[in-house]
């Protein structure tokens, strides 16, 4: 009898609105979860949840996650370059609104990000993302559950 593969969840936590939802789903499956940020964050008392505080600076938390996420792991992030890095290592990446990053979609997401950075650099005001709502939270829960199920079926 083979056991299910070990899955680790990494949360890019500094601006993540679905930390509590991730904790609940991870607990249901008994999955280790790393909460990675550059400042102190309260986390539930659980041997399955570990807080990681990295130095402040661009991409320090991203680097920590990307260096550890491997095939079958799941990363919760809005950061497109981080999602690209973890997808290349075989991990899954999910936005807090439930939208998965995929090998097929990441190229377009990187290109769109580059275009928007260029537009903002010219002084254009582009507005921000729409407000996070209950439907986003629901989509996230479904996407995380789906990613865990898929990862459990994927040989390591």
Structural topology:
Layout: E1 8-12, H1 19-29, E2 32-37, E3 49-53, H2 60-68, E4 74-76, H3 80-88, E5 92-94, E6 100-101, H4 106-121, H5 134-153
Helix pairs in contact: 3-4
Average pLDDT level: 88
Instruction: Give the overall form.
Output: globular
The CATH class label is: Alpha Beta
The stretches of 5 or more residues where confidence is low (pLDDT under 50) are none
Rounded to an integer, what's the Rg over CA atoms?
16 Å
Specify the CATH architecture: 3-Layer(aba) Sandwich
- Quote the distance from N terminus to C terminus: 16 Å
Q: How helix-rich are the residues, as a percent range?
A: 40-55%
- Domains (count): 1
| H and E string | EHEEHEHEEHH
What name does the CATH topology carry?
Answer: Rossmann fold
Can you summarize the main beta sheet? 6 strands, mixed
Instruction: Please state the structural category.
Output: alpha/beta
The main sheet orders its strands as 3-2-1-4-5-6
Describe this structure in words.
There is one protein chain. This protein is α/β, with parallel strands linked by helices and 156 residues long. It has a single domain, classed as 3-Layer(aba) Sandwich (Rossmann fold). 42% of the residues lie in helices and 15% in strands. The protein has 5 helices and 6 strands. A 6-stranded mixed beta sheet has the order 3-2-1-4-5-6, sandwiched between helices. α3 links the parallel β4 and β5. α3 runs antiparallel to α4. The longest helix has 20 residues. The protein is globular, with a radius of gyration of 16 Å. The model has no long low-confidence stretch (mean pLDDT 88).
């Amino acid at each position: 009898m083979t056991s299910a593969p070990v899955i680790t969840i990494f949360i890019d936590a500094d601006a993540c609105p679905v930390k509590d939802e991730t904790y609940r789903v991870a607990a249901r499956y008994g999955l280790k979860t790393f909460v990675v940020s550059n400042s102190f964050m309260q986390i539930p008392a659980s041997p399955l949840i570990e807080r990681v505080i990295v130095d402040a600076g661009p991409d320090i938390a991203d680097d920590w996650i990307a260096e550890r996420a491997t095939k079958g792991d799941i990363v919760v992030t809005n950061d497109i370059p981080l999602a690209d890095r973890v997808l290349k290592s075989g991990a899954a990446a999910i936005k807090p609104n439930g939208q998965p990053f995929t090998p097929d979609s990441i190229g377009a997401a990187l290109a769109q990000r580059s275009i928007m950075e260029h537009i903002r650099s010219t002084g254009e005001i582009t507005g921000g993302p729409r407000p996070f709502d209950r439907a986003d939270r629901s989509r996230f829960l479904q996407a995380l559950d789906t990613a865990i199920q898929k990862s459990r079926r994927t040989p390591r």
